[in-house]
Design goal:
single chain; 337 residues; alpha/beta; Rossmann fold; 7-stranded parallel β-sheet; two-stranded parallel ribbon; 12 helices; 15 strands; 45% helix; globular
């Protein structure tokens, strides 16, 4: 039984990791800004605080065997300071806490977007480099953090790995599903390009299980995983517009018929970004370059490394899991009307 500090334990992925860690017999300390009584009733020791606060982080990590770091600022719009503070600086605090506190293992929740440069990614593996240009601050700050996580392992100071789950989904998803449904209901969603570009998704239980497996393998002293980044998906690429259609149909929401070319959407995104930055508008523009590229281009990945190093075996029945999501998706859609 290990003592594990889990950041962002109240989030969609974090809460599932907490449940699976406890089910595996581990003790979990959860560090987040919120208070989560349901998880605490399951046995999570809740610590309220910000991962950006160095003192809080150093204190929370004392006596832990491992750290699982899921907390992040996601999205495609916002200030550099916010993204850099939460995604990059907080990770450096946690790495410092791990080294100074004698933590043995560090699992970082990264993102495949750390390798996305605005062109097709068709079955790429972990050899694909970080890009030289970035379409938004989220992947850039996540890449800076990931690099520090992997570098510290290569210098022999801590056993680490970075997991890159892609488009996490499942019942209760507060990110992907609400965004698609709300944009469809507001008339802001349209097909970009042909919609036939292939994308990968990963069910939350699969992604969480990989985090648990990674913690246990690093704690066991297995160096094959140490310093490695791994893509995580359901292993079954799907056409982007087909996936969006299935989400909307499950929510009983009409599928938009309007479309726009990738070139036009990208150009509009660039113009809107410039206008919003100039006017200092905080809300996200209706289109950005990153969103246009993600909707129109391939982004699916090889999971061979995860299979080899984590014995990762995606076994998701998509139809059954989407069926489970239907009641919640329809309540969600009703709340937007």
């Amino acid at each position: 039984m290990a003592e594990i500090l889990l950041t962002g334990h109240g989030g969609f992925l974090g809460s599932e990791i907490a449940r699976q860690l406890i089910a595996s017999g581990h003790r979990v300390r959860g560090l987040a800004r919120g208070h989560y009584p349901e998880l605490e009733r399951m046995g999570v020791q809740g610590i309220q605080g910000s991962v950006v606060d160095r003192t809080t982080v150093l204190s929370a990590a004392q006596g832990c065997d491992a750290i699982v770091h899921t907390a992040a600022k996601a999205g495609v719009w916002g200030s550099w300071a916010d993204y850099y503070g939460i995604n990059t600086v907080a990770t450096s605090h946690l790495l410092e806490a791990a080294v100074s506190g004698g933590v043995q293992a560090f699992v970082y929740t990264s993102s495949p977007s750390v390798t996305f440069a605005g062109s097709h990614q068709s079955g790429v593996d972990e050899r694909v480099p970080y890009p030289e240009k970035w379409l938004c601050f989220y992947p850039q700050t996540k890449a800076l953090a990931e690099r520090s996580v992997l570098d510290i392992a290569r210098h022999g100071r801590l056993r680490t790995c970075a997991l890159r789950p892609h488009l996490i989904w499942g019942d209760g998803d507060p990110h992907l599903f609400p965004r698609v449904i709300q944009r469809a209901l507001s008339g802001k969603l349209r097909r970009v390009g042909s919609g036939e570009n292939l994308i990968d998704v990963v069910h939350v239980k699969q992604a969480a299980g990989a985090h648990v497996a990674a913690v246990e393998k690093l704690l066991a002293g297995d160096n094959s995983l140490n310093g490695q980044a791994l893509f995580l998906t359901d292993g079954n690429p799907i056409q982007c517009w087909q996936w969006i259609t299935r989400i909307l149909q499950a929510a009983d929401v009409a599928v938009p018929k309007r479309s726009i070319s990738f070139r036009a959407a990208y150009r509009i995104g660039a113009i809107l970004e410039a206008a919003y930055w100039t006017a200092r508008i905080e809300r996200e523009p209706p289109m950005t370059r990153f969103v246009a590229a993600q909707l129109a281009l391939d982004h699916y990945f090889s999971i061979e490394r995860a299979k080899q190093l984590l014995n990762y075996r995606p076994m998701v029945d998509v139809e059954r899991e989407l069926e489970k999501c239907k009641p919640w998706l329809r309540r969600l859609a009703a709340s937007f009307k």
